[in-house]
Amino acid sequence: MSDLTSGTLSTVPGSRIWYDILNPDAPGTPVVTVHGGPGTPHDYLRPLADALPGHPVVVYDQSGCGRSAQRPADGRSWRLEHFVDELETLVGSLGLERFHLLGHSFGTMIACDFALRGTHRPDWLILVSPVLNVRKYEEDMRQLLFRLPPATAQAISDALRTGRYDTAAYREASLVFAERHMCRADWPDELLDATLGTSAQVRDALWGPTEFRVTGSLRSYTRADRLPELDMPTLFVSGQHDFVPPRACQAYARAVPRGQTVVVPHASHMPHLEQPQLFAEELLARIGGPG
Predict the structure, then answer these.
(1) What is the pLDDT of residues 60-114, one digit of tens each?
(2) How far is CA 165 from CA 151, 211, 219, in A?
(3) Judging by DSSP bridges, how do beta strands 15-22 and 6-12 pair with one another?
């Protein structure tokens, strides 16, 4: 692994990404993390270093957000392939002969495509709150509306119908949704900072302005038909109350030859923040090493 514990890397002309290696002297196999969003900086993943003290933990900001705010000018930067290229550059530049790869939410799309390319093979592929079939994701979100308080569900439905996501009713409904299905614990500073630091430009281009409908360039994304090609041990993780429901993870895992699932109790979309000890125990049971 590289002796540099932080820095920036050039990925494509006009684009640089920032990275940091936490626990750099730890003896375990490095864990490379891929944040979600799109456009939400890595900060909320930094607590993984405390949960996995025996492993170096690599964090980075995808281009267009956080400390990697500069973006290339061409349209390619709005496509998923660009972000997979960034991850390949990072892993290659760090000289990681062995590593585990952990993607969260949107980051699972990047991690999955990275693994399917096969240029660098992770020992374990860990997909937390995975979104690997956007159509199925949207179906699950529609079902979730029926379990929200009626006024909350109505405000979200109204916003989806009108395209107005700037109303007080929608903002209040989003808070109710987040408290139930995004993070049920008190939000730590790392999550608040990352959420407030989200790049709306990146988010809207790839995903869209709301969690409930995908209108950006990822709107037709699916890798459901390619999951059998993942030949490495693969762990799918969801929180009990995640808006990416456990049944979605179970369906993905059945398609992967060496797939496993974990449901973190009393957690939602941020299980590593809501139940850090349980989350770490489940990971360490797979990846090994001191922890």
Answers:
(1) 999 999 999 766 555 556 789 999 999 999 999 999 999 999 999 999 999 999 9
(2) 16, 11, 18
(3) antiparallel
Domains identified in the chain and CATH numbers: 6-134+187-287 (3.40.50.1820)
Instruction: Give how far Cα 228 sits from Cα of 108, 110, 116, 130, 258, Å.
Output: 16, 17, 10, 16, 9
User: Residue 74: what pLDDT?
Assistant: 55
What residue spans of 40-149 are helical by DSSP H?
48-51, 80-93, 106-117, 134-145
Q: How far apart are CA 225 and CA 25, in angstroms?
A: 39
Write the pLDDT tens digit of every residue in 212-261: 999 999 999 999 999 999 999 999 999 999 999 999 999 999 999 999 99
Token pair, residue 167, equals 């109303």
Separation of alpha carbons 226 and 205, rounded Å? 25
pLDDT at 135 > cutoff 80 = yes
The angle, 0 to 180 degrees and rounded to 10, between the axes of the packed helices 134-145 and 246-255 is: 160
Burial of 90 (0-12, 13-18, 19+ CB in 10 A): buried
Spatial separation of the C-alpha atoms in residues 90 and 159, rounded to whole Å: 39
* Predicted TM-score (pTM) above 0.90: yes
| Relative orientation angle of helices 150-162 and 168-181, to the nearest 10 degrees | 120
